[in-house]
Design brief:
There is one protein chain. With 140 residues, the chain is mainly α. The protein has a single domain, classed as 2-Layer Sandwich (Zincin-like), CATH 3.30.2010.20. Helix content is 45%, strand content 10%. The chain is built from 6 helices and 3 strands. Helix 1 crosses helix 5 (109-124) and helix 5 crosses helix 6 (129-139). The radius of gyration is 18 Å and the shape is globular. 22% of the residues are buried. The model has no long low-confidence stretch (mean pLDDT 84).
Length: 140
């Protein structure tokens, strides 16, 4: 193998929304069955940034402040039946803030996405940080 002396970097690209989505789905599949059952019907969406309404609602100072967000009704808020026309529970993962966080840290992108996914689902279900850390450890 010869060294590239031209000084050019190999062709690199930033992970796409589809790449982040694939990491999130793989992380979700690694979660314990009981945790996944609690998340039945959960929709995971990957977009570049949160919208302005979300940024304002969450009091974010920058579009890079949020890595992910849960939207929906948790188990504690659900009744015996679901309301007609109710939207599914959703987790939004924000690609550009995730990539920025990843670039500044030591964890792999898979570890960052898994962490954010577990925390968005976990806080929604009222789990403690210790509970989520144990679940996250099982998902590695």
């Amino acid at each position: 193998m010869t060294a590239d002396t031209s000084g050019a970097l190999p062709s690199l690209r930033a992970p796409s929304s589809e790449d982040i989505d694939a990491l999130a789905r793989a992380a979700f599949e690694r979660l314990p069955d009981s945790f996944r059952r609690l998340s039945d019907g959960l929709v995971i969406q990957v977009v570049d940034f949160p919208d302005d309404e979300t940024l304002n609602e969450m009091g974010a100072e920058s579009e890079f402040d949020l890595l992910g967000l849960f939207r929906g009704r948790g188990l504690a808020q659900r009744g015996a039946t679901e309301d007609t026309g109710e939207l599914p529970n959703m987790i939004w993962l924000y690609r550009r803030p995730l990539l920025d966080f990843w670039c500044d840290g030591e964890d792999s992108l898979d570890e960052v996405v898994t962490h954010v996914l577990v925390h968005e689902i976990g806080h929604h279900f009222g789990l403690s940080d210790a509970d989520m850390e144990a679940i996250e450890e099982k998902a590695r």
